[in-house]
Amino acid sequence: MSAYSLPAAALAASLLLALAAGPASAAPARTAAAKPAAQDSAAMYTQERQTDHRERDDLLTAGLGLDGLRAMVPPAFADAAHPSAAELRRRALWSNWRGIADLAPGGGYGELYGSLAAVPGREYSAFARVPGAHQPHRVLVQVPDGFDRDKRCIVVSASSGSRGIYGSIAVAGAWGLPKGCAVAYTDKGAGTDYFDLDAGVGVRADGTVGKPGEGELAFLPDAQARKAGGVAFKHAHSQDNPEADWGRHVQQAARFALRALDRAFPEQAPFTWANTRVIAVGISNGGGAVLRAAELDEEPWLDAVVAGEPNVYVRGARPLYDYTTQAALLMPCALLHKPLGAMPVAPLTGDSAQSFCDFAAEHGLLGEAARSGDTAARAQAAYERMRGDGWSDDALRAGALSVNFDLWRAVAATYASAYGRYAPAAREAGAATNQPWVSYVYSAATPAGPDAPPTARAASEAERAAWWADASGIPPGAGVQLFGPAGASRLQAMAGLRELWTGQPLRADADKAALKAAGERVRKGVEQTRAGAPRKGLPVVVVHGLDDGLIPPAFTSAPYVAMARKAGAQVSYWQVKNVQHFDAFLGLPALGARYLPLLPYVYAALDRVDAHLAGGAALPGDAVVETVPRAQGQGLQAQNLALPK
């Protein structure tokens, strides 16, 4: 088998990617008949915990503050193989802040936008389960000591990418906690609860590792899957297709927030949908999750939604799996097209990119003329094919980041397994039976040497102990590598992932009957994630950077807004120029001089819907935000952002 590594920090940054309550009469579409409380849902929660976070250990940064979050090395464990729950939480917050926000000096965080002030309070956490699911998802509620009991507000969010439970701390926590709101989170059935199939250990409620039977585990593959070897992770291997239930995951987190508030303030209980304002916010996959939550109208529970750069799929648009698998094969070649101009980072170049052009041409992906053309002609054909399929030049240029860090392959392999509801593929032939069409294996690895590729091996105690805090939810990263199918080249394996969507074999030895069956599984899983319109009268604001090269707005936000409006929904759409997908990359000077962060616009949208719900201020209208990137070496200024008024 072959392996391809990815810098852990890069993947953590990428794979990635609410509020205020007042009198019930201030919120639209609320009635006194709304379901009164969350106590009747108690059975859906297990492993409930409460922890206090005050002196030198707050809710927002675990006492690290801005300086601690900027540290280049993570907070240390006293015993690397046996970290405490408090140490794991502190390190998880460090990892998730750095993976989502631009905290670099001059980036503006904590000055122009956002807050890192200490917020003391309590955390309530549990496992929750949607009906029919094999595995639970995590829910967590942060209740600040300064909770505004008169305002009675909840911000509910879902982690971006496939991150763990703190994966939206920089999005929802940083906005809601300083305003005196409780903040509820879900990992939406993904997260960093990896299971070590070699050692037979998983992750308990407090983040520490344990064997089955030593407390309920957040992810426990079945007995057959545990024979596969290597590492299993929940997004790919739960066999639940968690994306299909992202909206219900968000709703369950909000229900758990009502339950937590009843416990935190029993004298003011019950907290209900009718007397507590709930705003949902998320970015990337979390943005898609809150839009899915907006569909759930069997009871009036949400007051507003803000979705940033959402991964959302609607009928007639291109789903993530389609454009990701296309980008994996064609984008490295298309980026050689000279008129595209300078990239934000150097993508694959030279012989490596040429091999993508050659493969695509030889397998008929670029048309007949490209078969006999040179590399320049093939690059032009790849570029024209992607442009014809909806990619903008700005999205292609920013997509160089995902090419550079091998994200297309990592995402495609994960989602193929998730949509097909597959168990982990066997590291050794014959050890497991339920395997995807393209059998990617995940394992700890010995690094590549000058003359040898990485090799799979068992993880150490210290490695597996840190996964919950350090991982992004999709390997490679945190010491776990992605190994392609035995005997298959990198391009052949990615072609197999593309075949699952198109149904057209690209490999001479492809079993057409097996491809048809596997492709039907994947397409069925994708269709289960299709979004519907939000409840009529529910304020929704969608915010997307026009340079997004990972989740292009042409495939996601734009068709979602059109669909929702056609159904009569109340949706505002902010399109922000010079913003790509990854705020965390902007600490690199070349990227900071070219792009602006998304988070200021998400916070501004939250401010606007908060003012509307609290006092009837006008909802934001549509906007195409004309921004001005800062000069290299200069700090971010308000005029660069040009926030909508």
From TrEMBL:
Residue span of region Disordered: 37-56
Statement: the UniProt record of this protein carries the keyword Cytoplasm: no
InterPro entries the UniProt entry points to: AB_hydrolase_fold, OHBut_olig_hydro_put
GO biological-process terms attached to the record: butyrate metabolic process
Hydrolase is among the record's keywords: yes
GO CC annotations on file: extracellular space
Signal sequence extent: 1-26
Keywords in alphabetical order: Hydrolase, Signal
Domain of life: Bacteria
Gene Ontology molecular function, alphabetical: hydroxybutyrate-dimer hydrolase activity
Annotated protein name in UniProt: Hydroxybutyrate-dimer hydrolase
Species per Swiss-Prot/TrEMBL record: Lysobacter enzymogenes
Taxonomic lineage of the native organism: Bacteria, Pseudomonadati, Pseudomonadota, Gammaproteobacteria, Lysobacterales
